[in-house]
Amino acid sequence: MNRTAVVTGASSGIGEATARRLAAEGFDVVAAARRRERLDRLAAEVPGIRAATLDVTSQESVDAFAASLDRCDVLINNAGGAVGLEPVASGDVADWQQMYDVNVLGTLRVTQALLPRLIDSGDGVLLMLTSVAGLVSYEGGGGYNAAKHAQTSMTEVLRLELVGKPVRIVEVAPGMVHTEEFSLNRFRGDSSAADRVYQGVPDPLSADDVADAISWCVTRPAHVNIDRLVIRPRAQAAQHKIHRV
Ligand SMILES: NC(=O)c1ccc[n+]([C@@H]2O[C@H](COP(=O)([O-])OP(=O)(O)OC[C@H]3O[C@@H](n4cnc5c(N)ncnc54)[C@H](OP(=O)(O)O)[C@@H]3O)[C@@H](O)[C@H]2O)c1
């Protein structure tokens, strides 16, 4: 039987690219997110991918999703994102709540639901898609910095708590990735503000660059745990040091 990989947030960006990469590696991939029609299109196009509806902010949805799975060998906790770039002083509590619910509690819900299957598989991989925003804070980072730091902490705690169990705990922390929707969502649909994020940057990372790194982490031998892989475009030496032409 093929190994099964679950990818959350697989309807766009890094999640979609990861679903494609893992299917190419021979995994049975369960591509999960809220926008079912996008997932159905992906599943119809790529052999080895099947679509599943999942809202990580709903315990009911996570429970139903977990109950629908026969097995889970690899879990890619990718669903997440940012809302707003306001200073802490004027940040909207509702935005912070939303970011916390998806990036932190969403990851927690899915992890709790699937951890027993990962352990039962005898060689599980739990991968957290965090961000360099979870390692270094920046002005306007506010709720997203806080949420991604929390996700990074959760990853570290899990690795400590699960030592001795047959499951690897991996973190992939990307810098600037030019995906279709991430910045658009952050700027609430303002496409010119979203475009300015990448303006003049010679080559931001693509979703597939990150998916390639994820796929590499997941396909190491069972005893090799990539604790944290930080991946940035060459043009981004640090959070505040971006080369633009
Ligand atoms: N782009 C970057 O620069 C960057 C850098 C570092 C880290 N990251 C992280 O990488 C991950 C993917 O980002 P991306 O750039 O690929 O963004 P994206 O294109 O906006 O994708 C986000 C995905 O998350 C899903 N999602 C959002 N809320 C969800 C929910 N409640 N339940 C289930 N799925 C949900 C979305 O699907 P539905 O709307 O269909 O549910 C979508 O598939 C995120 O965790 C992000 O924080 C991104």
Automatic annotation (TrEMBL):
<keyword id="KW-0560">Oxidoreductase</keyword>
<comment type="similarity">
    <text>Belongs to the short-chain dehydrogenases/reductases (SDR) family.</text>
</comment>
<dbReference type="InterPro" id="IPR002347">
    <property type="entry name" value="SDR_fam"/>
</dbReference>
<protein>
    <submittedName>
        <fullName>NADP-dependent 3-hydroxy acid dehydrogenase YdfG</fullName>
    </submittedName>
</protein>
<dbReference type="Pfam" id="PF00106">
    <property type="entry name" value="adh_short"/>
</dbReference>
<dbReference type="GO" id="GO:0016616">
    <property type="term" value="F:oxidoreductase activity, acting on the CH-OH group of donors, NAD or NADP as acceptor"/>
</dbReference>
<dbReference type="InterPro" id="IPR036291">
    <property type="entry name" value="NAD(P)-bd_dom_sf"/>
</dbReference>
